[in-house]
Specification:
The protein is α/β, with parallel strands linked by helices. Helix content is 32%, strand content 15%. The strands form three sheets. A ten-stranded mixed sheet has the order 7-6-5-4-8-1-9-11-2-12. Strands 14-15-16-17 form a four-stranded antiparallel sheet, with helices on one face. A hairpin with a 6-residue loop joins strand 16 and strand 17. The radius of gyration is 22 Å and the shape is globular. It starts with a helix and ends in a 10-residue tail after the last helix.
Length: 472
Amino acid sequence: MYRTSLILIVVFCFIVVTGHAQNQQKPNIVLLFSDDAGYGDFGFQGSKTFKTPNLDKLATEGVVFSQAYVTAAVCGPSRAGLLTGQYQQRFGIEENNVPGYMSQSSGLLGDEMGLPTHLPTIADHLKKLGYTSAIIGKWHLGGNDRYHPLKRGFDEFYGFRGGARSFWELSEEEKVKKPEDRLERGFANFKEHEGYLTESLANEACDFISRNKEQPFFLYLSFNAVHTPMQAKKEDLAQVEGLGLTGKRKTLAAMTIALDRACGQVLDKLKELGLDENTLVVFANDNGGPTDSNGASNYPLSGTKANHLEGGIRIPCIMRLPGVIARGSGFEYPVSTLDFLPTFVELAGGQSDTIQNIDGVNLMPYITGANKNRPHEMLFWKKENRGVIRKGDYKLLRFPDRPAELYNIATDQSERVNLAYEQPERVKEMYKRLFEWEKGLERPLWMLDRFYEGKAMERMDTYREQKRDEYE
């Protein structure tokens, strides 16, 4: 009897252990996503004044992409492309959904503007592969209930449906004025946090990780830092005293300290639970830094948020997966946030080539060196009359108010030497390639009032050239 019981116990333990191992053989996926950060405002990106020790350490433990791009120069469309793996213009999203600022001829207005419900997200794909998914933080893909994250593949949501909000508790007046910015747990459970929001989001992320440590999970930690309003903790402002920073840029540096600390908290939780060796961690940003509104620096790139110069669409990006991605490595070819979906799906054991209409590629063979080619021979961007094509090292920009411009990004990432007049045949060929791509796009579901398109061009000209000594 004793021997039989002992055998049963051993068999039971074997089943439990092997079952746990099978669950954990699929890596967890954590996407740390900042909002409106400047390309140059991190230590691993060359900043001498902005303190980002946790992200700097992460950069030494994985690969840093020197030419990582988003699909749009503003946050809503950028997030739509990331979550679907498709150019968002394919399904009619070219501009932010900002109630009250839109053209009245838009097909959708108010909280009706959102990510079309027939489109599967990363969370939808990973759910089929056995993953539990959470989005914590900013959604910005539709305020209407039908666009809610819990109806878009995510199992958990803690955050807000809008595009920007206070880092402190909202007043009753603010809740009424912009209901999409109320803090929400799950579906329609509205309750404001205590303290500083960046820290609250990190706490929620760590709680999610702890509760799901026995099963594969996808965590999309979508910070609203360092987007406006410019609000920092007194303790963090004290840390940037004496660095020669003033105004918005001083506050931005303090907000970046909180962002980095929050990322470090999540990374520490993974390590504490023994999950760090089996977790893909990605850090990225949603678009270029808005030099005017939050004082960000995109140095050495030209331009800023809302335009298609490099400073509007190129972002800092890190990936870490121990044992797969070489520590302290770099990747020089252009990649896109479109690539996150197929990369995550393949890592989770799925087949991204069976997914219809995606434009991204699985980056792992390129990162590991198994594939020596470029992940993308061409990348595209479009908003209204503005359009861009990156083909190889050359980039063509089409504008509504001036002739097209051509740059060799490999030798001129600051976009100072316009080659359009020297290479008219290349301009012609790339112009046609851009139009061929545009012929396959859907008409926009909504657009901002025309006035703001003019303001975008003014912003591009004002902040086109960025110098390090203006920010550091």
